[in-house]
Specification:
Bound molecules: S-adenosyl-L-homocysteine
Helix content: 25-40%
Mean pLDDT: 96
Number of domains: 2
Radius of gyration: 21 Å
Strand content: 15-25%
CATH class of the largest domain: Alpha Beta
Distance between the termini: 53 Å
CATH architecture of the largest domain: 3-Layer(aba) Sandwich
Low-confidence stretches: none
Number of helices: 12
Structural class: alpha/beta
CATH superfamily of the largest domain: Vaccinia Virus protein VP39
Number of strands: 17
Shape: globular
CATH topology of the largest domain: Rossmann fold
Order of helices and strands: HEHHHEHHEHEEEEEEHEEEEEHEEHHHE
Amino acid sequence: MSDLTSLLLERIASDGPMSLADYMALCLMHPEYGYYTSRDPLGGQGDFTTAPEVSQMFGELIGLSLAQNWLDQGAPSRFTLAELGPGRGTLMADVLRVGRQVPGFVEAADVLLVEMSPVLRSRQKEVLAGHDPRWVDQVSDLPDGPLWCVANEFFDALPIRQFQRAGRGWCERRVGARDGALTLGLAGETPQEALAHRLEDTSEGDIVELCPSLPGIVAELGGRIARHGGAALIVDYGDWGSLGDTFQALSGHSPVDPFATPGQADLTAHVDFEAIARAAPCAHSRLSTQGAFLERLGITQRAQALANVMSDAQLEQHIAAHRRLTHPDEMGTLFKVLGLMPRGGIVWPGLAQ
Ligand code: SAH
């Protein structure tokens, strides 16, 4: 039995069953045994691959989109360019490389990375050497000024709670123990203030998910954007409103039982973009699919330009990467993009109505 399993069983024995959010937080971020704290989970050898790791085109188009938005807001001479959960630093490196094509953008940017994992911080330090990045543990530690920000596959890692509808109340799904193993059980029915609006669009027995840390994070980002200008681009798998159990564990690129190997598998849930929009104290764009967003920004033209200097295996890999990022059977439809921006009609390329 792993050390983290013993620790979880001890805690359940003394305090009773815990919420999925507490379980996720311990599995992902425990200082010693946490999934993110102890490894680099990305890439072919790891557990999952993200869009910036699939192709440089993803970060390039996002970089140009952020830089255009910065121009459209008067190109302030100093701003925070932040990334939440930067992984290996690939996306930020691509943003900064392409950003050089927009005069003044990179020079005006203070690069800030919100990252809790020491292992990933050191990867980011290598990849972004020369850009003098700084790190903070949480979004509330970002400077209070103009903020342009990107988050790809960050919100899906935030701990969620799950509730099952029972009449006008909700039963929480909680992690308990049976015969020395972790199991999921159902607590008694209680009203949930935060789910009051979900009584209108759910039926008996439906499962909904709630991300307790999401409103605070969005308020921090949106507050800076509303007060000082800027924008945030949030890319993740999920949809408008949460319905059903989307809690999942991945190990070696395959789904596994989320309770079998705590701290050894990536745990995520789909992102509820409606919850982000509700929590934002600034304006938000429409929700777009990743495929449509990248197409509107010109990924096909960029793919063709890159293809002109490629051949053989490299070209095949490049064509597969384009398909992977945009095709509805791959990441194109499951992944969505939402922009946060100041009120007052900023038209965002790729996210305009
Ligand atoms: N954005 C990257 C990596 C996604 S993996 C990419 O697209 O490749 C999720 C990232 O979020 C990792 O860097 C992880 O360490 C970080 N992370 C997860 N939860 C976090 C939290 N609560 N606070 C700060 N960083 C977190």
